[in-house]
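Two proteins, back to back. First:
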Amino acid sequence: MLKFCRDNSVKTIIFYDLSRLARSVEEGLEELKRLVDEGFNFYFAGMDFLNYDIDAMLKKKIIMDFLWFAEPYVEDIKKRTRTAMERLRREGKLIHRPQLLHYVALLLSGKDNFNELTKSDIDKAIEHLKNYISEKLMEGKGLREVHEVFKKDFALLYKKFAKAPRGFQSFYRMIHYLRGYLHLSL
């Protein structure tokens, strides 16, 4: 960011708050010193009181106190996020952008929302796809041909879920994920 500001003659940098500047007191103080030394102005949008014209020593003290609390705050957020992600994984909830497999699971389960999907729904979709793809490959079809047949056979999926990925790359990723179930070498 500083390189961009230097290269484009930007002299004012706006941070949301101090925790976005640095993750520790030492880093924060070093960054602020560097910004001041290089002639940058900086403002904190989420902490408007830091932008007031107050005594320089008082401002430094406030900034140092906030940076000191930023470190444990960030660690606490990381811990809570990790805990929540682990809970969602255990519950079989989707915690990333849905892939083709998840759309198939929605279609087969009759559900309309990814948040409703369970691990069991995904396991059933895997079993269904394993049988479907194995059958198509046993017929001597190549992967691209299986993809074209898949798009026709699963036309309802694309009609019901317009955002479902249609490209070969998405199909290939699904096959790649399923390869252990299909005993394929890709």
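And the second protein:
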Amino acid sequence: MVTAYEFNWLLKGWVAMALVIFAAMWAHLGYNIAFFLAGLQTIPKSVGEAAKVDGAGGFKLFRYITFPLLSPVTFFLFIMNMVFSFFETFGIIHAVTQVGPGIPPPSWCIKLMWMVSSISGWVPLQPNRSFSWPWSLF
């Protein structure tokens, strides 16, 4: 222990939520970077050189050449990150809040778990909704 002062991460709900958001972003940062780097390597250099010959500067080169050619990778990562945020954040929330049997979770944790489980269809007892989610992700 560095100091005698202990900081309670769960004292304020927004601190715990910020910690969960940061941990979730950090967990998939390398995944996103790897896909964007792979997408950047697939862009032909001749397209960028042709745009430079036509007078495109740095921002126009990114806006009209690089970003449109990266749109399939961006769309794929958007879908994958949404799936991660809806279905794989329970482990992070449990690690941060230490919610278990007999320990009441913070109110934001209850709201988030209720939202995700109602989206998946198990809380309102509509299993047809939860069975349709994986097929809609194809």
